[in-house]
Amino acid sequence: MKHSRVPLALVATVMVASSALTACGTSDDEGGGGTAKQPPKTTALDINQVDPAQLTRGGTLNWAIDQFPVQFNEMETDGNQAATNAVVEAVLPSLWHSRPNGEQVPDKAFLLDVASRTEGGKQIVTYHLNPKAKWSDGTPITYRDLEANVRALSSKDPAYKVGSPAGYEDVSSVRRGKDDHEAVLTFDKPYADWRALFGAPNNTPLYPAKYMADAKSFTTGYLNAIPVTANAYKLGGIDKTAQTVTLVPDPAWWGDKPKLDKIVFHAMTTESMPAAYANGEIDYFDLNASVAAFKQVSGVKSGEIREAGGPNYRHLTFNGKSPKLSDPKVRKALFKATDRETLVKSGLKGLNWEGKPLGNHFLMPNQKGYRNNAGDLGTYDPKAAARLLDEAGWKLDGGKVRKKGGEELKLRFVIPTGQPAAKNEATILTQMWAQAGVALDIRTVPVNEFFDKYVTPGDYDVAPYSFSRTPFAATGSSGTYARDGGGNDSKTGSAKLDDLLDKAGRSADQATALETVNAADAEAWQVAGVLPTYQLPEITAAKKNLANLGAQGMADIAYERIGYTKQ
């Protein structure tokens, strides 16, 4: 399903990966089962959706994950992993479901309704929790749990090892409403993405108050254990020798009864997953957009490929602090010298997926509010690129490589080892940019040093990698695109972009927030620090008769709906 990601942040990943969100599915844009014979157009969901009433009761789902979870508190720094997400979100509460277009709706098993209002410049959100909801130890789920989660995740106490405060730092108080099942949260300033709190779609499910009460419990309570649960499934067992985690239905669950007898998560290397799937050892896994895996499993007669537009995208980051790229005209010239159609076709070749150049930094095509704001900077135009480089003082003067002040326009193009997508992009761009008089110095560096020693410190000119995101565009992008953002590896930006990102994040109205996000995106194109190339598909392999699980897009998983169709 999804890949490792920090809540509410754009996370750089060097893998051509699928997403790190999970799915639930009630949308008017749904995919179905069946191996595509023609490249499918971008869909938001492909999970073989079937009414659970039509499924058989029973059966075991063998699900491959890429590592054996150790820390099951996924908000703790070491627990922020895709494998952990897949397990935890089946056994812990989420107040929200995410539709395939990124819209958030209450999960009625936990949240009956919610209302947001603004008073005196402060945003007040009132949650009406389901009084039937209880932890597996019998304790009711109340406002106390929300309060404890906010306090732990706010990063106000450095003893808590939190991956990201993810909006919790903006909550000034949590208090009891008319009863224990009404929680009233106050934000000192309006916060657009308040629905990101307490939700699996943002990888921040709710944990019991007693395990969030102090830093030690936060760190060790769910270490090598899942002591308390509250969902359709509960822990059946953890087998370190077999590297499996088994979940079984919880008879105390008050919601729709799950269809399966067991879900067994098998930790194995990504390279071994296709063979295990072909041999019938596993029933479901994420291909991570691997062409080799795609070819290996496409012929499995008992299975099928499920594909949807994921929340990850490939891009090129330009180092604005590099002397050769500090002039926005040069960066814009390189934008126009890039034939993104060619990158799309080459990058997705062999994946049976029809893609197109991405026109937005913050929203995906299958996401509500998406708009192509690229303008002429998204159009391949070598002549215009040449004019911009001339204006910036980089001249050909009869040679093949442009010069300025006696120095060649030769750029350090840094790529990580073992990443076919990056190597492919380096080869294509070497030829493409040469037509504009720009040379590339391809530098292949160890994958584990790619960010820490090169991209983050700024020891590069151009770097290709992927961004992974949650459905929350307004607040999830400031760290990457704001001038003082901790993840702004391009070291570019503008006061206008900062202002628009802040306004988007502080808008209590969703429609206004999306309009502002698109205005911010238009400015990001003009800043020209990051060139989006294409949305990555989420590609999964599943048994043909496995229903309500597959390529989730922006949706989360409703685990109780997963099952097998009747033979």
How would you summarize the topology of this molecule?
Elements lengths: L10 E3 L41 E2 L3 E6 L16 H7 L7 E3 L5 E3 L4 E9 L2 E8 L13 H11 L17 E6 L5 E6 L27 H6 L12 E7 L4 E6 L12 E6 L5 H6 L5 E3 L4 H7 L5 E16 L9 H9 L3 H8 L34 H10 L11 E2 L2 E2 L1 E7 L3 H15 L4 E7 L4 H6 L6 E7 L4 H4 L1 H4 L13 H11 L4 H18 L2 E14 L2 E2 L15 E3 L2
Parallel strand pairs: 3-12, 17-18
Antiparallel strand pairs: 1-19, 2-22, 4-5, 6-7, 7-9, 8-9, 10-11, 11-12, 13-20, 14-19, 14-20, 15-16, 21-22
Helix pairs in contact: 6-8, 7-9, 13-14
Summarize the structure.
The chain has 567 residues and is of the alpha+beta class. It contains 14 helices and 22 strands.
General description of the model:
The protein is built from 14 helices and 22 strands. Helix 6 (328-336) runs antiparallel to helix 8. Strands 1-19-14-20-13 form a 5-stranded antiparallel sheet. A 4-stranded mixed sheet has the order 3-12-11-10, covered by helices on one side. The protein has a 4-stranded antiparallel sheet with strand order 6-7-9-8, with helices on one face. Helices cover 22% and strands 23% of the residues. The chain has helices spanning 82-88, 143-153, 215-220, 273-278, 291-297, 328-336, 340-347, 382-391, 420-434, 450-455, 473-476, 478-481, 495-505, 510-527, and strands at residues 11-13, 55-56, 60-65, 96-98, 104-106, 111-119, 122-129, 171-176, 182-187, 233-239, 244-249, 262-267, 284-286, 303-318, 403-404, 407-408, 410-416, 439-445, 462-468, 530-543, 546-547, 563-565. The radius of gyration is 24 Å and the shape is globular. By secondary structure, the protein is of the alpha+beta class.
